[in-house]
Design brief:
By secondary structure, the chain is an alpha/beta fold. The protein folds into two domains: 13-370, Alpha-Beta Barrel (TIM Barrel), CATH 3.20.20.80; 378-474, Sandwich (Immunoglobulin-like), CATH 2.60.40. The chain has eleven helices and 24 strands. The strands form seven sheets. Strands 16, 17, 18, 20, 21, 22 and 24 form a seven-stranded antiparallel β-sheet that branches. A six-stranded parallel β-sheet has the order 12-9-8-5-4-15. A hairpin with a 2-residue loop joins β6 and β7 (97-101). α5 runs parallel beside α6 (204-218) and α8 packs parallel to α11 (358-370). It is globular, with a radius of gyration of 23 Å.
Length: 479
Amino acid sequence: MRLFLLAIFFILNLPAFAQIRVSSNQRYLTSIDGKPFFWLGDTDWELFHRLTREEAEEFLEIRKSQGFNVIQAVALAEFNGLRQANRYGDLPLINEDPTHLATTPGANPANEEEYDYWDHVDFIINRIADKGMYIGLLPTWGDKVTPQWGDGPLVFNEENAQIYGATLAKRYANYWNVLWILGGDRPAVYRRKVDGVEIAKDDRAIWRAMAKGIESVLGPDAFITYHPAGGSYSTSQFIHDEPWLDMNAFQSGHGSREAEAWSWVLRDLALKPQKPTLDMEPCYEDHPVNPWDGKWTRARGYFTAYDVRARIYRSVFAGACGVTYGHHEIWQFLNTDLNPAINVGDTLIPWQVAAKAEGAYQMQHLKKLMLSRPYFSARADQSLVTSRQGTDYKDLIIALRDENGKFAFIYLPQNAPISVDMKKLTGEKKTITWYDPRTGKSIKEKEATGKGVVTLTPPKNGQDWVLIIDDATYKYKTP
């Protein structure tokens, strides 16, 4: 009886935070009870700053229905977040001082004297929790630390970053669904011009202090990652060895079609100590391709749902522990009655319409697929494909298989026959299934036998497909 009471006491006193952990093999993520957790995030950077309670409720319900489990939003927003009030006329800080949150007694939304900026943040995080999702909380956008570009202003130093981190950690210490994301589109180490002279800058001490503040309240189990600048840059290049960094991340970005996200996953996973990694910002659906050179035309085009799938599936099959989807009109919550559009090319899509974009619905099919088979033992293995594997973003095939040979997933960005080496997998009989990444529906073929090379042809409709090969012995369910 005494042991039973001690066990109950221990369970009831488990921390309410950090419900996500790194798996024991250091490659993937797991819930606190040991179940696989596939990070399916959404970039909702201006959520706290630009939406009302009712709008946030509408949006979050849509994302819940689409299978997302991490909503990524910024407490001190990118676009004039310290000086432009939120929809209720409130600012986040007193005198732009991160050690003094602009809070008031009470939290009644019907009383504008009570309902402050942070009450609004609390409300949205609570609604995210009520819908069974996590908040990937960025304490600040990076322009408040690293003045390379953006509205700023620069307000952080080591001392106040630690205090601010601790302040937020105390505020959300009893929330089960808070995951911490430092950075905010900025590198930790970079070069900038000062008085016309380029000098090296290193902001790791500030980010380290902010992480220290969070961990001073929540302990080392607080899940903390970092959102870096775009391109091939990754957290693995400058802060991989930081003990507070639980997961590496990069953003293959919105400009280049040629970004090889799968290669960056393999690069990160090759480092020691090994840490999970993912693409925290791949190409955004409906984002104009490279609009920053001043030469964009409609002929250059926008990223489509296919472009998003083709990048995301290949990064995940290379070994990423998940991915963050994005839509160009969602992260800014486009409403031209309130704020000017940012890099929209020549097409305006209100956020309410963008929330129901084709690609947003399709992402859940990837999560369901990855969780339909033994998860922690999955590894990239290009040797499965004996036919032409492709060379770049247009046609490169990426193969993933169970390290014990029980199953394989192969992503085909182009609809063409593929030859597969069956001896890489166990079992005399193999179940062959074509998985449609557009619909999540499966088409089964006849079982294959033997351990030789087999050539398979995807269904005629659809540009891209996922080939699933299972050892028939295990009788896996069709995803």
